[in-house]
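SEVERITY: medium
COMPONENT: batch folding queue
REPORTER: lab tech (J.R.)

DESCRIPTION
The queue accepted two submissions in a row. Attaching both inputs and their returned structure tokens so the on-call engineer can compare them side by side.

ATTACHMENT 1
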Amino acid sequence: MRRVNLSFDEVNSLSRSEYEEYFDEMGIDEDAKEDRVLMAMFLEDRFLEIFSKIEMSILNGVPYFMDSFSLFEEAYVIASCLYQGVTEDMVRQRASDFALAVATSTYDNEGTPYYLSADRAVNMAATESNGINIFGENNDAKLFGKTKKTWHTIIDGHEREWHEEVNGVTVPIDEPFEVGGDLMNYPLDTSFGAGADNIANCRCWVTYS
């Protein structure tokens, strides 16, 4: 995975400890955890910039939906390509789906402080960093000839019941998991139409064999 020079002070980021704690819960190695932490910090920085631009647009009475959609999509694509080394074409649909969902929820909840808050930026960054990294790891596993994948869920009383049900399930690498009625290639996958009840704040991960 390629590293990039970040536009913020990654050492002094107030969110680093939050991300480290979040990803510590997962059964991933230190390199995978650090990849997720750095990407989350990158995304948080971008999301806060976008939130600031939305706030200015609201104050000035300027329409912002399409601009915010484009900015969220661009942030997702840049993070994916820089950190995972994938091509823009590989992630464009995922980026578009993410941008539409977050731009719509932001617009629909205008006036609710959380939707332009640092807390939301951190939550989004952690979730999307996990999802982008899982996507990249899935591509790498195929390139390295892996044939099976196993879903893992953190069991600590906060897990979704249907995520607990799929914990430890192994399927062929090209087949999706069935998760609470949705089909998903891996945690946080939306390519088959999985909704927020399967995606938001998901802490699951996959291993390959």
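ATTACHMENT 2
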Amino acid sequence: MKTFFTLLCLVLCSGVIGQTKLTESTFKKAIAKGVVVVEFNAPFNAENSFKDYKELEHCNYYRVCIVASPNLKKKYRITSYPTLLIFRSGYVEKKYKGNIMLELDVDGKEVQEKVDELFMNKF
């Protein structure tokens, strides 16, 4: 039954996650090196996903479905959707949380500025 529920969650999340998706088993390796932007969202909020991800440079971008990855939700204290976390070498450097309308108050330009700052700090 647990396996069935997990598979069902992954199928539901596939609508939310059109880009490379991370799971609890792939997360640690994906954020380990460089600058990485990770969006945490839920299937019911797919329409409010971060839309400027294609414009981001000098980083990798991933999505995590909080339904399929409850331990990541708990570990990173994800309480609103969507939430963007920017990692550098495995550590959270910046967190952008969705507002009461379940929308992000940040655009691609602001996220890119933070990514660039972190990217340049490695030199």
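NOTES FROM REPORTER
The radius of gyration is 14 Å.
No errors were logged for either attachment.
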